[in-house]
Amino acid sequence: xxxxxxxxxxxxxxxxxxxxxxxxxxxxxxxxxxxxxxxxxxxxxxxxxxxxxxxxxxxxxxxxxxxxxxxxxxxxxxxxxxxxxxxxxxxxxxxxxxxxxxxxxxxxxxxxxxxxxxxxxxxxxxxxxxxxxxxxxxxxxxxxxxxxxxxxxxxxxxxxxxxxxxxxxxxxxxxxxxxxxxxxxxxxxxxxxxxxxxxxxxxxxxxxxxxxxxxxxxxxxxxxxxxxxxxxxxxxxxxxxxxxxxxxxxxxxxxxxxxxxxxxxxxxxxxxxxxxxxxxxxxxxxxxxxxxxxxxxxxxxxxxxxxxxxxxxxxxxxxxxxxxxxxxxxxxxxxxxxxxxxxxxxxxxxxxxxxxxxxxxxxxxxxxxxxxxxxxxxxxxxxxxxxxxxxxxxxxxxxxxxxxxxxxxxxxxxxxxxxxxxxxxxxxxxxxxxxxxxxxxxxxxxxxxxxxxxxxxxxxxxxxxxxxxxxxxxxxxxxxxxxxxxxxxxxxxxxxxxxxxxxxxxxxxxxxxxxxxxxxxxxxxxxxxxxxxxxxxxxxxxxxxxxxxxxxxxxxxxxxxxxxxxxxxxxxxxxxxxxxxxxxxxxxxxxxxxxxxxxxxxxxxxxxxxxxxxxxxxxxxxxxxxxxxxxxxxxxxxxxxxxxxxxxxxxxxxxxxxxxxxxxxxxxxxxxxxxxxxxxxxxxxxxxxxxxxxxxxxxxxxxxxxxxxxxxxxxxxxx
Amino acid sequence: xxxxxxxxxxxxxxxxxxxxxxxxxxxxxxxxxxxxxxxxxxxxxxxxxxxxxxxxxxxxxxxxxxxxxxxxxxxxxxxxxxxxxxxxxxxxxxxxxxxxxxxxxxxxxxxxxxxxxxxxxxxxxxxxxxxxxxxxxxxxxxxxxxxxxxxxxxxxxxxxxxxxxxxxxxxxxxxxxxxxxxxxxxxxxxxxxxxxxxxxxxxxxxxxxxxxxxxxxxxxxxxxxxxxxxxxxxxxxxxxxxxxxxxxxxxxxxxxxxxxxxxxxxxxxxxxxxxxxxxxxxxxxxxxxxxxxxxxxxxxxxxxxxxxxxxxxxxxxxxxxxxxxxxxxxx
Lengths: 719, 331
Hints:
A: alpha+beta, 6-stranded antiparallel beta sheet, B: alpha/beta, two-stranded parallel ribbon
């Protein structure tokens, strides 16, 4: 295959590989009919590029033609006219149409939950991204002749899926990669002429070195940069796409509670509904956590189980203590948990005989393989079990060592936490307190105070996320709850982390709890009383303060006003930052990372980009420019560098310089050099010029330059 | 002048002639390849040759060997202070029996004129030779007589022994196409020379290998050699370099450009090429230019000869690449 013909084959291959890139959106969007117009636009754009390349020898004119054609086709296909029809020719109103479609696509992307049905505007955005990506890859791989580098761009649509360990259609990815490798192979073959022929001639059949080098570089970046980024403290700040565990399957609470993670998309799908005799439940707790390593919570080992009958509470309570129970009948929808959601006060289950209760973790386990999916059950709870008086009454038991009843993990502090600092803060905050109840209340109000701000984005931190949070003051419920737990522990109050759901919103007599009602809160231990929920998270996304923990009495310490505590607990509607459907970066979703590792990643990316640019520039100056003896000669002398002398040497002197300097090139290269020297002399100085074909000249230049490179390598390895 | 494009056969003929002559000369003068090549190029370019060097390095031998190798008429003039112009050009003598003057041609009437130690003669006599070199004709008693073609003057002079000499002025030196410094032979070449002279005269072994007609045809071929714009640009750059160099008080004249191109064409033809390369220009720049320029005082004080200055210029002037900018702009 010679000259430019490979380009005509490479472009469709690149279009194929780029089009397959939408496979990287698997799980984010629903594949359907919208793929067809996308493929059509892409194919038409590729055809325009190929035709333009047939018509012109200039490297980037086809890209420009393709861009024009692609833009026009996208406008025709995706931008309706004011009356809803299709216009083949852009008019003044088309601009408005483009703006409307773009706004619609952005809005839709923000307000939909993955996997999203792709409506027209979103399909237009995806098509635009795919076509732009195709043109960029084609310009680099075919226009500039640097096929291997283009792989970086080709992998771009797959990166989010691959780095987030989301499932991708492996076959599609493999096909895309195969197409890319074919492009590389084509480009290398044309560069060198046939390497089989070279082998026949006795020259070493060089493998496509550039392709191998680029692949190796990609793998190296993946192996070095990715672990660096993941291992670094800033990784958690990266926007995460939390998807339903199994696409289309049941939802599940994210048990990977890491303080470095920003809170991202939350589903608006209902998790469960319930009716209640006593109004909205404060919370429904599902899991508790006792072990904290400084950044993340770990599940605790199961303790001694007992059947989930009677009063479910770690402390021994007489059944009558639940004097005026409120009763709730809970129907769980598509939520597959291993623990049954229960209120945070002493409770009993009406249908709990086959379930087990773990007093050490205070969780109700369900043995079914499908977990809680479709479960309906009734729970009675003592909503008013905790009162200020009863909690203050626990102090006597604390003095007599009542805390020893709970496992020591609820007091453990990981050495990664700056314990002294946290304790100083906690002591300063709670200095007015006279008992554990007041202490807890002061901690809660401190965290709800003006120093802290609810934010789904968290500042990057190292191994001590709590100190970082106390300093930065931005976080969501996990940070607030964890901070209160850790501060309590520094004051020797046993404390644990609980996650579950807020009480939900009422609709038609039923309360509906949705995915976005998921919540985390601290529970502090009061001897003789049990685990008591507090609510340190500010009002944006929080439960109400429990009645017993609402500082409304005169004798409690004054606390700063912290917004309206009576407002509904349900999270106000806010845009759901879903996964970006197009290759465009998520504006605003990932702006929080400034830690060192991100600088490192940025440097790596910039280096890679600069390297690509440099190689592209060299490729543009080099191989692609061989059209005559003069350019072949220029290409060869440039690649030989100092060995070829400077511009004051005549071709013959240059030849002598090349043969005289450095290690021997071998007969093959000497012959090629002499032939190329004669050709360039003929072109410059002979009346008839040089009649040698460009690809032959390129072959000679390659042979000399490669021989020189190999000879030098050989000399180095021997030396 | 005939400037038809030379055919391959004509080129081969020139190359072959040059090779034959060169082989003959080398039997006498081993190791003087550059001098021999420059000499041949001068002959084929219709120039005149000034051999300048210390005594005893083979100037006269080269000149005589040349005369023998070419089957042409050779005139030899030993220049002395009392040599008269008529000793060079010839005189008209009265033939009493026929009652008329008869012209007796001087030694200048030959295809090759060897003028030994030209700087020993008086300026007047020098002028007579130099004028005939320029005019390729001799005017005696009002009658102009053409000199035979080809016509080549090979003058020698000794730059060291200045006493009693009349150095050629710049304007006169300009008449010579090339000045060649023969130089001392290398150790091996000198041994080879001793062997060659051992017991016999090597000059006697030099056989004529080309006739005057051969030479004329070759000269016509050389005129048709192609000098591309790129090579002319390079040549002019080099010549202009001598005028702009601060190391030279006097640069090379436009005539030098003409002569350099002519000599380069001859060298190209000797290699069987139908076009001039910058290499030809480079190889002949010093022989053609060095005797026409005058080093500036500071260069002389620094011991830099005209040859060294011209070599510097050659090392500085870029060899133009044809259509290079266009080739680069095309991606």
